[in-house]
Amino acid sequence: MTAFAGQVTLDGPSGTGKSSVARAVALELGAAYLDTGAMYRAATVAVLDAGVDLDDADGITRAVTQAAIGIGTDAATEQVTVDGTDVTERIRGTEVTRAVSPVSAVPAVRRHLVDAQRSLVADATAVVVEGRDIGTVVLPDATLKVYLTAAPEARAERRAAQLGVTDPARIAAIAEDLRRRDAYDSTRADSPLRPATDAVTVDSTHWERHQTIARIVELARERAEA
């Protein structure tokens, strides 16, 4: 079997399990891994800690560009820091989740972080990068581009399971939140969420996680052997 060398991009809407799937794919391929969503969440921590209003695009940009955001590329571990403080757990909290969309929608913030993302993976022989605009903006010449999607209801069920939520009304509310996030991300002016024209769409609505991982690994190895 030919070892994979190249870049795999994994884009898609919130709640599809991109991070866990991409990390597992990277481990299977022996590749580096970059979670760009974690970078935007870390940037959001910097904005919140600076006390900047989420309607203040200039203030958001200053807070992000002045912050030292650190993120590892080892698929076996996760570590995210802001100005030397470990925020790995904090970036997944409700406060950050509610604020990350307006922060990530600021064009200057996206340009700043895209440059950082490209620098982080520039020297990697093999890398899996996940986010929302990786195949379209960050790495448009990637070896394999995957657009991972699933129905909002399926994504809501998975997120509810992660949170230990069983109440149908709360699960329905999660699904509605995901639809709103989809609409926000897909209609923003800068780098909207959309599949690259040459991306392979993987719909995981009716798949278990291991099936999704296996399919993407299969696609990557097919490209390596082509």
UniProtKB/TrEMBL annotation:
Domain Cytidylate kinase residues, every copy: 8-221
Catalytic reaction list: dCMP + ATP = dCDP + ADP; CMP + ATP = CDP + ADP
Enzyme class, UniProt record, top EC level: transferase
Enzyme Commission identifier(s): 2.7.4.25
Domain of life: Bacteria
Keywords of this entry: ATP-binding, Cytoplasm, Kinase, Nucleotide-binding, Transferase
Alphabetical list of InterPro entries matching this protein: Cytidylate_kin, Cytidylate_kinase_dom, P-loop_NTPase
Keyword Glycoprotein attached: no
Annotated compartments: Cytoplasm
One BP annotation, GO: nucleobase-containing small molecule interconversion
GO molecular function: ATP binding; CMP kinase activity; dCMP kinase activity
Family listed: Belongs to the cytidylate kinase family. Type 1 subfamily.
Protein name per UniProt: Cytidylate kinase
Source species taxonomy: Bacteria, Bacillati, Actinomycetota, Actinomycetes, Geodermatophilales
